[in-house]
Specification:
The chain has 584 residues and is mainly alpha-helical. The protein has 21 helices and 17 strands. The longest helix is centred in the first third of the chain and has 24 residues.
């Protein structure tokens, strides 16, 4: 729910990244983390993955593998550069040992080289410090700490004709359809344009390719679309480069390690260099007084806290904690966090407050930082409930027709509307209700349900039965778009996201009923045509719908926290000794 979803808005952050750069960074951070975990779970016996992530058998149990991030392998473990000729011969050899269906996939994988050039530009070497050069990750210990299998127990598999299973299969078919058309018309491009049947790059991706592929990896894995997952993984291994030429991302391009076969190494290296740019870059635009936005400041916390967990390098956690602390200590109007702040003066600007566009993921990441830390990150918890109390005091309203909504605040004057982006808040409030003060828990559970009901009404009252971009509450209409420019639907996930959380936390069947309405309307083609198949449709909308009709132990909320683009990050459970390892 980053602000890349606000068309035409390109603010700048106080640390040197404009919104397109910020989203670019978050998208590929999330995607690479997803690739690491997805590939490990899907291919547990892969010798290549074991070589990258697991300790050698000869080592003592629990000894962590140490991998150099700075472009060199550890002593004695030097690995030669990739040899395309050898790779092709190996590919051909595997053809002799696989099924005809598998051969067809391998044939398509061979054609990936025709879609995207394989050449990798030369990159400037960026030295790493001793503190940031080691990447440590004990995958076996991580597996032991999970309380549920990643894909659950599939308890209902004994009932192949069950209605819920059939509904889930329908959503899986939608994912297959979306992926197949992307692959056919736009493979390697960032997004598909269905009407013109071609690919779309988009300025928000900073010149990089394959956003839909990166965004789709964990959804393909979750739905057990194994061939499609392998196809996406092959593209990442062979064609995805962190080299960029766009001015939006060129300031970070020197820190990317081309040819590094370890996605996690790219991830930590990218994170380290990214923070170098954020805090040390010399950015001429700062003198113009361009605003930064609240969502930018809060939307990397989960990813960077997890980077510290993966690498053991505290710098990632320290940076986001510093951002959080600065925001908490700033004087706020009535305890509300305005959406805009000046990177020049450090003051809030415009005093526009919204839990939707421009502000959303800041609040989302506070409660999720608390949950991902196994409920040890008390600073995030306190900030979340303080913010929620201010929102409830000054923004929460009930319409004459009985619909609960969160208005927008502009210098003390309320705009009585909600954006589709704000509809994630029902799920967020439900997720945080359990850890509220005891006297507030039931209240927050009911509030979450009422906001989610309002967002459903925005769907039910539209002509297409899919929700508008924004809806208003006034004397003439409630939960309806009042301007033509707000009546469109671009495959957004926020409403079905709240359905999923409310179902998981209450098991009220109404949420599955509402979710199925979205599926059937979309399947009948009643949705208005959109020029772009957004990558978040595959990453978020279809994933949340699939989870809505899955068992609770599938990507269990006990083990996983979803980032703002619906990519799962692991909860930092205690290890077998009873201690909790966390960077917080």
């Amino acid at each position: 729910m980053l602000m890349r979803k606000v068309p035409g808005f390109v603010p700048a952050s106080p640390w040197g990244l404009r919104l397109p750069q910020k989203f670019l960074f978050l998208l590929f951070l999330s995607g690479l983390v997803t690739l690491c975990f997805g590939a490990l779970f899907l291919l547990p016996h892969s010798s290549r993955l074991k070589r990258l992530f697991l300790a050698p058998r000869a080592q003592k149990p629990g000894l962590e593998l140490v991998a150099e991030v700075g472009g060199r392998s550890p002593p004695g473990k030097q690995e030669p550069p990739p040899n395309p000729a050898l790779a092709e011969r190996a590919l051909g050899a595997r053809h002799n040992r696989v099924s005809p269906r598998r051969k067809e996939w391998m044939r398509r994988a061979q054609h990936l080289k025709e879609w995207i050039p394989r050449a990798r530009p030369t990159e400037e070497h960026i030295p790493t410090t001793a503190s940031s050069s080691l990447l440590r990750f004990d995958f076996e210990a991580f597996q032991r700490r999970l309380r549920h299998p990643v894909l659950g127990t599939r308890a209902e598999s004994t009932e192949p004709q069950s209605p819920v299973r059939a509904q889930r299969e329908k959503i899986k078919e939608m994912m297959q359809f979306a992926w197949a058309n992307y692959r056919r018309y736009a493979m390697g491009k960032n997004e598909l344009r269905p009407l013109s049947k071609d690919g779309y790059q988009g300025h928000i991706f900073g010149g990089l390719n394959g956003a839909t592929i990166i965004d789709s990896l964990d959804t393909l894995y979750l739905m057990e679309l194994k061939e499609e997952f392998q196809e996406a993984k092959a593209w990442v291994e062979n064609c995805f480069h962190l080299n960029v030429v766009s001015t939006h991302a060129s300031q970070r391009s020197a820190g990317h390690t081309a040819g590094d076969p370890t996605p996690r190494c790219r991830l930590a290296r990218r994170g380290d260099r990214g923070w170098f740019c954020v805090f040390r870059g010399n950015w001429g635009w700062a003198s113009t007084g361009g605003s930064s936005i609240l969502a930018e400041c809060g939307s990397l916390h989960l990813e960077f806290l997890h980077l510290t967990e993966l690498s053991g390098n505290q710098i990632f956690a320290e940076k986001v904690r510093k951002i959080r602390r600065v925001l908490r200590e700033m004087k706020k109007p009535y305890g509300l966090y305005p959406n805009f702040l000046s990177p020049v003066t450090g003051n809030w600007e415009q005093h526009h407050v919204s839990i939707g566009g421009l502000g959303d993921s800041f609040y989302e990441y506070l409660i999720k930082s608390w949950l991902m830390s196994a409920k040890t990150d008390t600073e995030a918890k306190v900030m979340y409930y303080e913010a929620l109390e201010a929102i409830e005091m000054y923004l929460l309203n009930v319409s004459p027709g009985g619909l609960t909504y969160i208005a927008e605040w502009r210098g003390g004057i309320l705009d009585h509307k909600m954006g589709h982006l704000a509809c994630f808040s029902g799920g967020m409030i439900a997720l945080g209700a359990e850890d509220a003060k005891e006297e507030k828990r039931a209240h927050y559970q009911e509030l979450a349900a009422q906001i989610t009901r309002t967002c459903h009404e925005s769907y039910a009252r539209s002509d297409t039965k899919l929700g508008p971009e924004a809806f208003w509450f006034n004397s003439n209409k409630e939960a309806e778009a009042t301007h033509e420019g707000e009546s469109y639907y671009i495959l957004r996930p926020e409403v079905v996201e709240s359905y999923m959380y409310l179902w998981r936390l209450t098991h009220d069947p109404i949420y599955r009923e509402w979710g199925w309405e979205v599926v059937t309307v979309s399947a009948r083609g009643r949705a208005q045509e959109t020029p772009t198949q957004q990558s978040f449709f595959l990453a978020e909308t279809l994933k949340y719908l699939y989870l809505l009709f899955s068992e609770d132990d599938t990507l269990s909320l006990e083990d996983w926290v979803f980032n703002t683009e619906a990519h799962p990050l692991p909860v930092n459970h205690s290890d077998s000794s009873g201690s909790t390892r966390h960077p917080y």
